[in-house]
Structure formats: C-alpha cells, structure tokens
Design brief:
Blueprint lengths: L6 E12 L2 E8 L12 E6 L3 E12 L2 E7 L3 H7 L6 E8 L5 H4 L3 E7 L3 H13 L7 E7 L11 H5 L3 E6 L11 E2 L6 H4 L6 E6 L2 H13 L7 E4 L15 E2 L2 E2 H4 L2 E3 H4 L8
C-alpha cells in the first residue's frame, strides 16, 4: 500500500454522541490495512474539501472501523453534513499508538478529558476482551457537563470489569448528578495508583494533560510510566510536510502517543 494513497470508505452508521460530536462507523475497501492499533489515527477527508487527523474510536468490528468527530472546522463541518451511505476517503493508519504491551500485566490508569475518551475507547475494549491480562484498571473521565460525556450507553458494561469515575465542570441538566463536580485532577486521589506497578494513558486538552501528569508524578509515578497523546497540525501523516514538527519530533510519525518523559518541557511549555 502506498502511504499516501487514500482508500474509499462508506458510512454505514452515524451515531449522535453529543450536540456537536458524532461517531462515524465506516466500511473500508480491501486496500486498507487490517493492522490497526489503539491510539493511531487516519487522515479523513474528501477531494476539494481537505483532510483532518482523526483517531480511531473503534478498530475492526464487523468489517468496519470507527471515528468520533467534533465539528470544529471546514473538514469536520463537511463530514457533519454527510449521511449513511455517503463516501469518504481515508489515509492511514498512521503514528504510534498506546503501548498495550507495556500495560499488560500491570495496573492501568486511563484519564480522558472531553473528546479524549474517543482514542481511549479501543483501549477499553481491548481490556474488556482480555481482562485477565491486566491488573486493576481505572478510568477517570471528565467533561464540561453531563451533555458532553461520550459513549454513555457503554458505561454500564465498562463498570462490570473496570472502575469508572466521572466528573464535570458543572452539572446543568437539573437532574441529580451522582458523581464529582470539578477538575479531573480531583479524581486522582480516588484511585491511589500503585506507583511502581501502574501505567497511565492520558489524553485530552494539553493543559489538562499537563496538570494530570504533574499530579501523577507528585503521587510518585515516574514520567516513563505515563503516556500522552498529542494532535498538532498534522497534514501528511508521513513526516514530510513539517506541519506537526515540534521540538525535534514529528507528531504524526513519532506520536501521537508519547511517553511523558519524552515530551515534558517542550519549548512552548504546554507539557
């Protein structure tokens, strides 16, 4: 497969997650790789419109893959107007995903802010399918409010095998909210990770990741055991255009998942 040759994908299902987020389940033609890893991404787009880097929110299931997309720009606004049966073009898979091999046999802490739950969803599904391969697994999930939480219909199944902790910046629906209100860092003391035997995957807004990672280190975790996912200005996916070059790294090739020890102290101070 040529790394820049797109594959045709047909939209088989569109699920409204929140007011501005949808999950698109697509069936891809035979030219697309079957070797996908949680945390990798595709370049998703359409001729004449452009492309956007979108992480996988589900890997191969019933011959389809999933992307969860927020409508925030020209490409995603175009995708937002599509209907089931319409076509998209995909390039990928690109990048390095979550280090599942490192996590196996250890406790696993997953921390997701907002749309950051989407690239962790394949991790959760792999954990559920191979539960005995992991120790204690905890998911901390934060959002602006209850209306912005993703995949809420799956929480009950997740809770049967992992611990799930939710928090929102504010509760707005008027319905009883039986979970935390406040920053996601406030949930770290709820899990009390075994600092020597825990691996952490963190994804969300960069400022959130910075404070979560620092909070974990203050509690004794080593930067080499914490992994973050970055998404910055990716255009080609193969480290040729330079748009995502940052402090000596190409996010599309060397990431988007990095050990925190590798990216802490980047020149702009974000992490």
């Amino acid at each position: 497969m040529h790394p820049l040759k797109p594959a045709k994908a047909v939209l088989k299902n569109i699920r409204q997650e929140t007011a501005d987020v949808k999950t698109y389940t697509v069936q891809v033609d035979g030219a697309f790789s079957r070797e996908l890893s949680p945390g990798q991404f595709n370049m998703v787009g359409y001729p004449g419109v452009g492309e956007a880097p979108i992480s996988f929110s589900s890997l191969w299931e019933d011959g389809c893959i999933g992307h969860t997309v927020r409508s925030v720009g020209a490409v995603t606004a175009f995708i937002d107007k599509l209907a089931e049966g319409d076509e998209l073009l995909l390039r990928g898979p690109y990048g390095k995903g979550w280090p599942m091999d490192i996590a196996k046999g250890r406790d696993l802490l997953l921390v997701a802010g907002g749309l950051g739950l989407a690239p962790l969803r394949p991790v959760i599904r792999e954990v559920l399918q191979s539960r005995d391969s992991f120790g204690t697994v905890s998911l901390l999930c934060g959002a602006r409010n209850e209306k912005n939480l993703l995949f809420t219909d799956e929480y009950e199944a997740w809770r049967k095998k992992i611990s799930l902790f939710l928090t929102v910046d504010e509760a707005v629906t008027g319905e009883p909210w039986g979970h935390s209100v406040g920053l996601i860092t406030g949930l770290l003391d709820r899990v009390k990770p075994d600092t020597a035997g825990t691996c952490a995957f963190v994804v969300g807004p960069e400022i959130m990741m910075r404070f979560v990672c620092r909070g974990l280190m203050l509690r004794g975790m080593q930067p080499a055991d914490i992994f973050v996912s970055l998404e910055r200005r990716m255009k080609c996916g193969v480290a040729q255009c330079g748009h995502c070059q940052h402090a000596g790294f190409f996010v599309c090739r060397d990431g988007p998942v990095f050990p925190y020890a590798q990216v802490t102290g980047l020149m702009d101070g974000m992490l």
